[in-house]
Write a structure and sequence with these properties.
The complex is a heterodimer.
Chain A: E1 8-16, E2 19-24, E3 27-33, H1 35-45, E4 49-54, H2 59-63, H3 65-73, E5 80-83, H4 89-98, E6 102-105, H5 107-111, H6 114-123, E7 128-137, E8 140-145, E9 150-155, H7 156-166, E10 170-175, H8 187-196, E11 201-204, H9 210-218, E12 224-227, H10 229-232, H11 238-247
Parallel strand pairs in A: 1-4, 1-12, 4-5, 5-6, 6-7, 7-10, 10-11, 11-12
Antiparallel strand pairs in A: 1-2, 2-3, 7-8, 8-9
Chain B: E1 4-8, H1 16-24, E2 28-32, E3 43-46, H2 60-71, E4 76-79, H3 81-84, E5 107-108, H4 115-118, E6 129-135, E7 173-179, E8 181-182, E9 189-195, E10 197-205, E11 208-211, H5 219-234
Parallel strand pairs in B: 1-2, 1-3, 3-4, 4-11
Antiparallel strand pairs in B: 5-8, 6-7, 9-10, 10-11
Classes of the chains: A alpha/beta, B alpha/beta.
């Protein structure tokens, strides 16, 4: 047996000015509830991790974020990753001190790749997640910064490899094309990146049904899969999703209240 | 009365989650500010994530104070890097000695020529080993693998069934791991985990305990382990 490491199901909270929001293709945000209350629900439901992304539009909103991290962390005994607005080692420190276990950096890593090395050096590689937002342009998956608004000169696979060499412990890979569409994860994009690096890859963008998760774990070779809207609006419950995936033969962490028979 | 437990802060990662987890188990964690402050502690926790070299900041004065308290019977729990530091050292930072409270030295889980690569059944895997994996408690003690001069003596002293740290934790329970180096299975091993190779995921000898995984991030498994440690400390 090579490993009994399970595939992870990660619930994502996009937080703006203290409330959870969710959009489609990175636009058209709607209110989905209180971050701490949702975090508590997902943890109780068996989410393997939580990721909170700060999408605040204002400076006041960003200032409130440390308090939001603290409120979420108080609810959890599973890992919490915080991303969005982490631009410096000081921002990372503030997130860790408030209760984050990892930070995800995106635009700041594109602008200053050494920030990856600085965070990994101070907090360990496992705490340095590099978030990559990618969008297809013909045959190239182009990396975008600034919440999907600004194309960079980088290609997803090459950037993931570089991030790994700079000390990233994990890649959070989001398909801008699929984000919020519920049409399924981009398995081609995910498999390309996952096969190119030797660190775990979290697939994000497009979760609609349980079969999408099975697909991205198998065809997409994802180590973890993230979803937001399907959990927020209670279309899919995490225990039911994990039971179904376990029945498909995928290794899942089943919690005692929702145990599998396998 | 709430037991006071000293946390050794050597700057490797944040303590917030560990302190939260200990408080939930009824432990009052205090960050130790000097070696002398360990004298009042009913228990000691060495948390940590990151590179083995981070432990270099724990000076000789700290080491002496820690070893004196452990010799006096004070329970010690090492978490992740903190557990690795309880071994003799790590190939991650060859010049830095560990506390040598457990036999063997830590090695990469996925490096050509490493101890783990030489173990039977080794498969190349992604590192860091990041996520939820099973903590197995073999029923008939734990069998070490003797390769080269790793161990002279492999007879396990503690049977998993007698482990105080794992009391009430089922074999195969899930815990959250985040590491690239690991400790070999040896005499102090009471539970193992497999990721490419099989490594020591929980060690225990007398009042010395260690978990390679993070109890503070391991949901109900972690809560049970902290509660058990609180019971050991409170005794």
């Amino acid at each position: 047996m090579s490993s009994q490491l399970t595939r992870r199901i990660i619930a994502c909270l996009d937080v703006r000015d203290g409330v959870v929001v969710k959009g489609v293709n990175f636009q058209g945000l709607v209110n989905a509830g209180d971050p701490a209350a949702l975090a508590a629900r997902y943890a109780a439901d068996g989410a393997d991790e939580l990721i909170m992304l700060d999408v605040s539009a204002t400076i006041e909103g960003r200032r409130a974020m440390v308090d939001t991290i603290r409120r979420i962390a108080e609810q959890l005994s599973v890992p919490l990753t915080v991303g969005g607005g982490i631009r410096s080692l000081d921002d990372a420190r503030a997130a860790f001190e408030a209760g984050a276990d990892k930070v995800a950096i995106n635009s700041a890593a594109l602008a200053t790749p050494e920030l990856i090395t600085a965070i990994a050096g101070r907090y360990g590689s496992q705490a340095a997640v590099v978030a990559i937002d990618a969008k297809w342009d013909d045959e190239h998956a182009i990396v975008f910064g600034r919440s999907g608004t600004t194309a960079s000169a980088r290609e997803a696979v090459e950037w993931a490899r570089e991030a790994e060499s700079l000390g990233a412990g994990e890649i959070l890979l989001t398909s801008i094309d699929r984000d919020g569409t519920r049409q399924g994860f981009d398995c081609v994009l995910t498999a390309g990146v996952s096969g190119a690096v030797n660190i775990p890859v979290i697939a994000s963008g497009g979760a609609g049904g349980a079969d999408h998760f099975a697909d991205v774990f198998r065809r997409g070779r994802a180590d973890a899969a993230l979803a937001a809207s399907i959990f927020h609006f209670a279309d899919t419950s995490i225990p039911a999703l994990k039971r179904w995936l376990a029945a498909q033969g995928l290794p899942m962490r089943m919690t005692t209240t929702e145990d599998s028979s396998c | 009365m709430t037991a006071t437990v000293a946390l050794i802060d050597y700057g490797a990662g944040n303590l917030t989650s560990v302190m939260r987890g200990l408080r939930r188990a009824g432990i009052d964690p205090v960050v130790a500010t000097s070696p002398a402050s360990l004298a009042d502690a009913a228990g000691i926790v060495v948390p940590g994530v990151g590179h083995f070299s981070a432990t270099a900041i724990i000076s000789d004065a700290w080491r002496e104070a820690l070893l004196a308290r452990v010799t006096a019977g004070v329970p010690l729990l090492g978490i992740c890097l903190g557990m690795q530091w309880l071994f003799e050292g790590s190939t991650e930072a060859p010049g830095i000695p560990g506390l040598a409270l457990a036999q063997g030295s830590c090695q990469s889980l996925n490096k050509a020529g490493s101890y783990f690569e030489l173990t039977p059944g080794f498969v190349s895997v992604k590192i860091p080993h990041l996520g939820w994996n099973r903590v197995e408690q073999p029923r008939d003690g734990v069998q070490g693998i003797n390769i080269g001069s790793q161990f002279a003596e492999l007879t396990p002293d503690v049977d998993s069934r007698d482990s105080r740290l794992l009391a009430g934790v089922e074999s195969g329970a899930f815990a959250y791991f985040a590491h690239s180096f690991a400790a070999p299975v040896g005499p102090e091993t009471v539970a193992t985990t497999t990721h490419g190779a099989t490594f020591a995921s929980v060690i225990e000898r007398d009042n010395v305990f260690g978990t390679q995984f993070h109890p503070e991030l391991s949901s109900e498994t972690g809560a049970a382990i902290f509660a058990n440690f609180a019971r050991v400390v409170g005794r």
